[in-house]
Amino acid sequence: MVGIVKGLAGWFSRRDNRFGLLTLSIIVWILSAPVIPYLPLAQVIFAVMGAVIPLAAIVAISENRRHARIGLILGLPAVFGAVWNVIEAELAFEWVTLLFPPIFYLFTVWVVGSRVFKARDVKADTLWGAACVYLLIGVTWWFFYLALEDLMPGSFAGGAAASGAIEDKFDLLYFSFVTLTTLGYGDMLPLTRPVQTLAILEAATGVLYMGIVIAKLVGAYASQAVHGGAAPDEDDGDEDEFWTDS
Fold this sequence. Notes:
This protein is mainly alpha-helical. It is 68% helix and 2% strand. It has eight helices and two strands.
């Protein structure tokens, strides 16, 4: 067991596995969300799991000094909001939990997506990055839906509550990924114009992203095969250490 833990720690600490840590954190969080309410200390586990993703995202974008600083400014309030949201019955800082996470995740999508699309060759972390961008899009839209449901209760029909305000946040996470993947089960429906508009944008984003990223990765892999090996990634001009000034 100790050997497995050390092996995982060594794998995650490598520079080219940062996107893998973020991707696996999101997957574990999604898979555990329906189970955690039935576990002892569910509130504490929710707080920890909610804080892990923004922390992993900060690590993922910390290769660039400017990105790291912006990530800390936006990400630490997201960590605070995730913890506060589950330990406080009456949410005194609701704007923190609804405003900072989607802004931070959109910034993370931009940073990681830029690294993926600048890559000249296909490596493991390139694939991890492409996957985590897709998952982060779903998580980001989840926060948008949470905010609209909070501002306009009754914006959705279906889920755990057949009518009225959505009480189970997992329902909106489910709706977000069903929309992103264009599954369209029809068991949850957007009722208001703002939510319908967001759903249109999310579905279009999911389809366009998959098409563009597949074309990019196939092209990069073909170029890599033609040249007989990996080519160096494009430099974004600021790949220095975390806190080193240029």
